[in-house]
Write a structure and sequence with these properties.
It contains 13 helices and 13 strands. It is α/β, with parallel strands linked by helices. Strand 6, helix 7 and strand 7 form a beta-alpha-beta unit. It starts with a strand and ends with a helix.
């Protein structure tokens, strides 16, 4: 099998929130770059990239340029592809940013082809043995929502059968530790004591704030499953201070690029739950390396966004804990992994088990 062509395009998807009808910015758009890798066998691999923002066009161009270098290559040689693209970039286009996003999109498409070639779903090719994986509702309980609205959305998620869900603190506007804690207490009252509740800070607190408010939340009896990205992502010492001070597990990692920062993070014992973003880490190839690294440190690993692909990776990793279910890209695909009562069933089709919905690509074409 040889790669014969790389094609790309951009869609501006609506910023809807399908889980509890609680979109914080319903008129917003999410720019996504899609990738198709064609082969001489007729098989096609697909990938996606985002986080481009105002540079989405630049990201697409980077994928086109890097993808052209892979034409004629065997898509099953994923490590060789990484080495080739790294050498071509000359070390000056990374380790983060547009280069890494482009690399990830191409790597995802290569793994789709690699596993289609052996006619196996990605998770099975990787040795996964679980028929289902847990998942949590994300993106419905955002900080921009009023207290009444976020409580209503939390109750809606519970009524729909979710066993795990995530909210946010570091509220906009005038806020205090008391207001932050009250919000968590009200959400917990709405969902009851048994649902796993996570909370994302998105790097908005200083370490001392994270310790202060984190302890207040603990004292309130809310019982968080984890507290996420409490301070600047590369402040490994600050993260370690928070992790040491709280009994609540601290999660982090979605904002870092490549695999090296994860080594620093784990060596510093900065987090209890590494969270790996597929497009920032360098694709499936690099995601798997971080998961193995976390296993060596006796840590679980969780995903960030793209549940349609991450179901395979969390399901295959022996230390895979749960999949973040934020289906922002779901409308791009004809079928997505089956979700029921907070559990995802492993896909059965070869590769990623995904196929682009042509009508969606055309409707939201940029």
């Amino acid at each position: 099998m040889k790669i014969t062509a790389i094609r790309t395009g951009i869609v501006n998807l609506p910023a809807h929130e399908p889980l509890a009808d609680a979109a914080a910015n319903p008129d917003g758009k999410r720019p996504i770059v899609w990738v198709r890798a064609g082969t001489d066998s007729g098989a096609e691999g697909i990938g996606v990239a985002y986080f481009g923002g105002a540079l989405t066009g630049t990201l697409r161009h980077a994928i086109d340029e890097l993808g052209a270098l892979l034409v004629g290559d065997d898509p099953q040689l994923t490590e060789a592809a990484h080495a080739k693209l790294k050498n071509a970039a000359g070390g000056s286009a990374g380790p983060g940013g547009v280069y890494h996003l482009a690399l990830s999109a191409l790597d995802i498409a290569l793994w789709d082809l690699k596993t289609k070639a052996v006619e196996q779903p990605l998770w099975k090719f990787l040795g996964g043995g679980r028929p289902t994986v847990p998942t949590y509702a994300s993106g419905a309980l955002m900080r921009e929502l009023s207290l009444d609205r976020v409580v209503k959305a939390a109750a809606t998620l519970k009524d729909k059968g979710w066993k795990e869900m995530k909210t946010q603190l570091a509220l906009p506007g005038e806020t205090t530790p008391k207001i932050e804690v009250e919000r968590m207490v009200k959400i917990r009252e709405a969902i009851g004591p048994d649902i796993k509740l996570m909370c994302d800070i998105n790097q908005r607190w200083r370490p001392e704030q994270a310790v202060d408010i984190g302890k207040r939340v603990e004292d309130s009896g809310v019982g968080l499953f984890w507290l996420e990205d409490v301070t600047t992502a590369d402040d490994f010492a600050g993260l370690a201070r928070v992790s040491d001070a709280l009994s609540t597990p601290v999660a982090g990692g979605e904002y870092v690029w490549g695999i090296v920062p994860f080594r620093h993070m784990m060596e510093a014992r900065s987090v209890d739950v590494p969270m790996v973003d597929l497009v920032r880490v360098g694709g499936i190839t690099q995601w798997l390396k971080v998961a193995g690294m976390a296993e060596a440190f006796n840590l679980p690993v969780v995903s960030h966004l793209i549940p349609e692909v991450h179901v395979h990776l969390i399901g295959a990793a022996p230390n895979g804990l749960t999949v973040e279910y934020m289906p922002w890209l779901g409308m791009m695909f004809k079928e997505v992994p089956v979700l029921k009562d907070g559990v995802l069933t492993m896909p059965t089709k070869p590769g990623l088990g995904l196929e682009f919905d042509e009508a969606t690509l055309e409707r939201y074409k940029a």
